[in-house]
Design goal:
The chain is mainly alpha-helical. The chain folds into two domains: 73 residues, Arc Repressor Mutant, subunit A (Orthogonal Bundle); 106 residues, Arc Repressor Mutant, subunit A (Orthogonal Bundle), CATH 1.10.10. The protein contains twelve helices and five strands. The strands form two sheets. The protein has a three-stranded antiparallel beta sheet with strand order 3-5-4. A hairpin with a 2-residue loop joins strand 1 and strand 2. The longest helix is centred in the middle third of the chain and has 16 residues. The N and C termini lie far apart (68 Å).
Length: 218
């Protein structure tokens, strides 16, 4: 403020008028609700839900992130639930243990399978093999545990492997948000000619990324 007062003091009348009537390029936002209408608030929450993905987000976290009241955040989430419950959308907003997250509706799954069947190749990528190796040795395992070991996001890879019937859901963990557990399928066992998981090769004491990826090949 002191700097601005000194600047104004040194200006002539024309410069003062321009300074006072030119909108600032940087606007301080006190509360999102001050600048956004209901539709914009829903859009913001939808974006936040997309970012958190399968981990989900709690009402309190939405409220704190947007600097709004708990009940306001809850109302927005309920509005989003009603919006995506309509047949017009292929995803839905669910509440698992207080954590809200987007999931694909069951009606979409057969089409997702066909789509990936059309685009898949006979061989699996190195990333896919690495992910399969982790699941086979650690199952049942959550996406977060897989990503901790791989060091990269695995959400899309898990969806592809499920569509190709190499892995499947194996219930839910008791951890916060109740994340999905994954395990390999009979198709995986057949693909790699394994009678049981005990037939998996022993892991080296210190396994590098390249060694992990070479555990399986088609």
């Amino acid at each position: 403020m002191i700097i601005e007062e000194l600047m104004i003091h040194e200006m002539d009348e024309k410069e003062k008028w321009l300074f006072e009537h030119t909108p600032s390029l940087v606007t301080r936002v006190e509360k999102i609700s001050d600048l956004q209408g209901p539709k914009d608030a829903m859009a913001i929450v939808e974006g936040l839900l997309y970012i958190v993905g399968e981990d989900g987000v709690r009402i309190e976290q939405i409220a704190m992130a947007m600097d709004i009241e708990y009940n306001e955040a809850l109302d927005i989430l309920k509005d989003i639930q009603r919006k995506y419950a309509k047949e017009d959308y292929g995803i839905e907003l669910v509440d698992y243990g207080g954590y809200y997250k987007f999931l694909t509706k069951k009606e979409v799954h057969p089409y997702a399978q066909r789509l990936l069947d059309l685009t898949k190749t006979n061989s699996l990528s190195q990333s896919a093999l690495e992910t399969l190796a982790i699941i086979a040795y650690k199952q049942p395992v959550t996406r977060i545990e897989i990503e901790d070991l791989r060091g990269v996001g695995s959400d899309m890879m898990l969806r592809k492997l499920m569509a190709r019937d190499r892995i499947r859901e194996a219930g839910r963990s008791e951890a916060p948000g109740r994340p999905i557990l994954y395990e390999v399928t009979e198709t995986f066992m057949d693909s790699f000619k394994l009678a049981s998981l005990s037939d998996l090769p022993e892991l080296p004491e210190h396994t590098s990324d390249e060694e992990s990826e070479s555990l399986f090949s088609e």
